């Protein structure tokens, strides 16, 4: 196998796994706003991940080297993990990185992939519309409770469900718009800006 074939093989594999990413992203001010929101959510998720890692490290160190264990570290770790997932879920949806079974994606043409994106985004949109009011009610229950060791109002912790479903709602609308535009324009829209991964 030549060196050129070896270099293109991983790229071909990655392209085959990212079939839905061939549907063009929104451009213009809305596309820039979505990209900025992506970056913000990812940075916050990364901060939560780093905080989680440092808290776990502190927890392990306290068990090994201190005469007492820090009880609040387990609780903080749990809350940081919850927020990391809530902040990252919408971005993962926007980048089509959720776990899925790709039995037929490769068979779809350009408009078929766009229609599939519309279908998935519509299902997610309907689901989040139904769940978001309940997530808000759930968050309000936390106003009357505090966490056992950190004494944080549970409103802030329960609000992660609102963040999760709110971001999924927004990104499903963006995906729906991108899919509909791609279906209307057809393969010509493939020349528009692709999202940098």
Description:
The protein has helices at 3-17, 28-65, 72-94, 110-141, 154-185. It is 71% helix and 0% strand. The two termini are 28 Å apart. Helix 2 packs antiparallel against helix 3, helix 3 (72-94) packs parallel to helix 5 (154-185) and helix 4 (110-141) runs antiparallel to helix 5.
Could you outline the blueprint of secondary structure elements for this entry?
Blueprint: H1 3-17, H2 28-65, H3 72-94, H4 110-141, H5 154-185
Helix pairs in contact: 2-3, 3-5, 4-5
The value of Rg in angstroms is 21 Å
Q: What distance lies between the first and last C-alpha atoms, to the nearest angstrom?
A: 28 Å
C-alpha geometry = elongated
Oligomeric state of the chains present here: single chain
The average pLDDT score comes to 83
* Fraction of helical residues: over 70%
Unreliable parts: 189-197
The ordered string of helix (H) and strand (E) elements is HHHHH
Largest sheet: none
Structural classification: mainly alpha
Number of helices: 5
Q: Number of DSSP strands?
A: 0
Portion of residues in beta strands equals: under 5%
Q: Keywords, please?
A:
single chain; 197 residues; mainly alpha; 5 helices; 0% strand; elongated; disordered C terminus
